[in-house]
Amino acid sequence: MTSLLxxxxxxxxxxxxxxxxxxxxxxxxxxxxxxxxxxxVLLVAAALVSCAAPDTLLFHGLLKTSxxxxxxxxxxxTAAVAAxxxxxxxxxxxxxxxxxxxILVLLGVLGMVVMISAADxxxxxxGFELQSLALYIAAALARxxxxxxxxxLKYFVLGALASGLLVYGISLVYGFTGTTSFAALAGxxxxxIGYGAVIGLVFVIVGLAFKISAAPFxxxxxxxxxxxxxxxxxxxxTAPKAAAMALFLSVMTGPFGHLLAQWxxxxxxxxxxxxxxxxxxxxxxxxxxxxxxxxxxGHMGYALMGLAAGTEAGIQATLIYVAIYVVMSFGAFACIIxxxxxxxxxxxxxxxxxxxxxxxxxxxxxxxxxxxMAGIPPLSGFFGKLYVFxxxxxxxxxxxxxxxxxxxxxxxxxxxxxxxxxxxxxxAPDFDAVPASVNFVMAVGAAVTALFILLPAPLITAASAAAxxxxx
Amino acid sequence: MIxxxxxxFFSFILLASAVMVVTSRNPxxxxxxLILAFVNAAVLFLLAGxxxxxxxxAIVYVGAVAVLFLFVVxxxxxxxxxxxxxxxxxxxVGALVALVLFGELFLVVSGWSTxxxxxxxxxxxxxxxxxxxxxxxxxxxTSYLPLFQLSGMVLLVAMIGAIxxxxxxxxxxxxxxxxxxxxxxxxxxxxxxxxxxxxxxxVPASEKEAT
Amino acid sequence: xxxxxxVLAPLVGSLIAGVARPVIGRHAAIAGSIVFMLVSAxxxxxxxxxxxxxxxHIASWISVGSxxxxxxxxxxxxxxxxVAMVSLVSMLIHVYSIGYxxxxxxxxxxxxxxxxxxxxxxxxxxxxxxxxLFFGWEGVGLVSYLLINYWYERPAANAAAIKAFIxxxxxxxxxxxxxxxxxxxxxxxxxxxxFANVAAQAANGYTLFGxxxxxxEVIAILLFIGAMGKSAQLFLHTWLPDAMEGPTPISALIxxxxxxxxxxxxxxxxxxxxxxxxxxxxxITVIGGTTAFFAGTVGCVQxxxxxxxxxxxxxxxxxxxxxxxxxxxPVAMFHLINHAFFKALLFLAAGSVIHAMSDEQxxxxxGGLARKLPVTWxxxxxxxxxxxxxPPFSGYYSKDAILGAAFLAHTPVALYGWGLGVxxxxxxxxxxxxxxxxxxxxxxxxxxxxxxxVHESPLVMLVPLLVLGAGAxxxxxxxxxxxxxxxxxxxxxPSINVAANSPMGALDAVPSWVAMAPLAAGIIGIAIAITFYxxxxxxxxxxSQQFGGLYRFLLNKWYFDELYDWLLVxxxxxxxxxxxxxxxxxxxxxxxxxxxxxxxxxxxxTVKLQTGSIALYAFIMLIGLLGFLSLFLWxx
Lengths: 472, 211, 636
Fold this sequence. Notes:
Oligomer: heterotrimer
Shape of chain B: elongated
Largest sheet of chain C: 2 strands, antiparallel
CATH class of one domain in chain B: Mainly Alpha
Radius of gyration of chain C: 28 Å
CATH architecture of one domain in chain B: Up-down Bundle
Helix content of chain C: over 70%
Largest sheet of chain B: none
């Protein structure tokens, strides 16, 4: 049993997904609600089991579990549960309550968990493909909507390009070193730096940067965020970002840890372009989902700052940032999903007008998330920025920090504009009641975001332990 | 010597047919060139001694994927003129990008050397007394079993995806439910009304959907 | 465990009254607040009876290197005494407010604030480190601001609330710097670790403006400046009288019994550090004595019943600091507890009067209320006698002990404090008697229609009065032995550090004339008041004519507000105006407007890239890849 424990979460997800699939196919009418709750239960169970799993290296070094993987897994599970809760009501109202969706989410999460635990380039690639494929399908879930299918297609084509680049990079690295195992790579690349490995590394970075939508590999993000059903966008904005960022961290510090001097500059450039683009392009947006897309690009830029530092403190900072980002993000998406007027989902920023007068609690929650994303103390978002900035400063990346500060000032503009529209613009008081599941996610997100300052220690200690496990 | 000649020969055909895939005007021709490219790639695998990969490539890509492409191209009405237009618009930039990329990769390959420790790092050198296929099978079903299983999951997702995106319950079609039809009684389906003169009968909404 | 319940119950009550109010309705909201306050008071008293326990660790808060403050409840003698007092008094005032706020539409908000205040105050007194204390400190400050401004449609309430907030900022800044310096010096802000290392730091210096100061003195004085702000001591006292704009139960709870005493509590809590800082102790003594005297003189000529009591609060807090300054911390705590009871009583009784008089607060328009408000009259009498220091009421015991301790300390500053203290005792008795006589005796000077409405308060307001009245009568006598008597050291245990050379040990050895002096001063003060306001009513007017300058000086509260206005407010406004006209309108607006145009232009350009074409997207990705590859191959 103990030897099974480390992969038990993955088994739960995979076998559970298949069991739900059988139930879904046989039961009539479509048991979308049942499979959603079943998926949530499975995710929670997997999360609990993964907490109990010991640190090991599995299957001849294909997979590993450590404090780091558990930290990232916990983030992914949380985000996925939140996304499923948000989908419960929304999918039904939009007529896309397919029982397959939660199963796809489960399989996607399985892919993310494999990605996070990867200790070999091949595992990495398979996990990467598994979760990507599930997400492509999810994006096109509203198959009768042109925007949704277009989003799915775009994501698929560009994703295929990215994964082609990734696998090409992996083949270059393999060709140069003769191995795909992280541990062996770390040992080999310590002493030698050659064209092959470095160029392969660039390709790998590009593939991963696509997944976390770091500029300039972000182009799919706004279109896909806008086109996909909002419940799916809520998933895109959280779980895969956390998983891909964790993978990014473990790949950069693991097999390529000794090439810090080579990749540091690339990560810096990625961070700078992402932050700048996230701040600038979001200003002109009128659609809140597009706004969130640019916002997530910017946030990934900030998170990369910690990786660019390349230190243990930097890894810790990135983990803290991503954890805080995930919570803010699913909270904000809960608010966006709750935006319905007279039975219609609306997604223009101007549609928020008059919200504060009619639904003060909802408006306040949204305002909290916007403030937090802008990084205003004492909300959680501020601490995320604080940690990455201080990690980057300690690593001597002063330019990066200065650009980060300038872009966060610029981005504050569009976050605050949302608040301004909610509180000061007049609008018709015809918002629909917010369903309980959405309210729950919103309340949890708001509570964590607002009260983080009172109890930051658990997250910070956990992130510190995770970073230590990774850098070990 | 012959091996080298064969390699260059098939490589040339491979590259030429790849170019033709992109440039040919007729989409059916393009797919046929694609098949040619696949076959040549399979031959290159054979030359390298990887007979299993060669046959897999031929069976999966030529036998399944490319033929599927052919069906799609022939059955769907794709506006290739519009696609071509896009191609021409981006051609100059694309050519530039391709050129630079090629130059750089050339630089990499020309300066290529494997790492000193690379041969030693190879975990599974090709065994002498086994066929290529058997050796591959030994690895896939032992050391790389989880990856094999996960690949299965990828295929499962692809299958679910195909069904989710295309399968529709035909709501309009009239099924027979024999058991239901046998079991029903006149009271469930028949209502006798006595309409007053000039007033007509109001039918409740629940009864309007005649089964 | 009881302590935890006592601390958290008000928070729950506050959430019920504040957040759940739209769901459960007005009455349930108020009832929820009251019930949880009763729980808190019960738990607070049980905790006190249960005795000292080890600090209760709840959760870790921040963990940054060696800076690791936790959420921990300290449960030593000092904390438990304060928890019991705060929760009990707060509970009584909650109950009283049911009656007092009965006609107010937004009463649940009031109860939510008040419960929140109680939570913050309890968090303050149970803090186990300086940061947690600071959390409670700012929490009570915040609620104080909200409650002064409770009737936010009144401009005077706005102004008073802002004033209270800003004046407190001055003190809080020093306090925060003090905490930072403490961490810098001791490497910890946990009380236990600070106290354990005081001796090690005694000889160390701290260089400020090129001069070397003993570091403990600097810390002690910074912390004391924080206490001065919160406890309205001289120079930072101006907010307290204005704070009377809030509802009267608030004046009783926050601005008399609990929050303003937080400064005294903090000084007592930090006694090991203060003891090691003799100069700071002298500063505390001087400020305390002077404040007592200053506020006493001003109180003599004011006409607003609540303001007079507010000045007396200021004055009594001065007494407490006087006691703390000479090292007699238990005496300061003794007075703090007694004062909480009788001052809350006075305010609530005054509230009852104001309630009866249709919100009239000017004592010149009152009079002859004794008949109509018999219970209030009796309770006001109890409170007044306690404040004036007449035996057997509680104020007598503690004020006597303070002055005795000041005399016994024998240093010049202590004797200065003693002299002022005795004279202030006379002033206190005088103005207390003045308020009492003008309110309850003689002819009623109120307009006719007000007179007709005069009525005794409902029972729900009178019961808390009676309980507090019993406290004012008995707390001095009952607590005396334990708090400052022979076994005080045993009672307080290690929670208060009483220096060997403090006057605590010799309190019984006070010369009898010194012991009698405050009582004599009190009786003389009352006699003067009776002469002025009963026997010869013309005399006060004649005197104020005769000594017009002095009268105006006192009436205008020593011109402190005017001085601050001239010295600080006006220059600040002028500077602000300059900053606005030049700095803001030209520089700050000009530069960002330019930058903003630049930013929006850049934004439009970036968005233009997002055409929706997959081919373009793929190109941009490839160009990005190319860029990175080139970076490697050619730049590096």
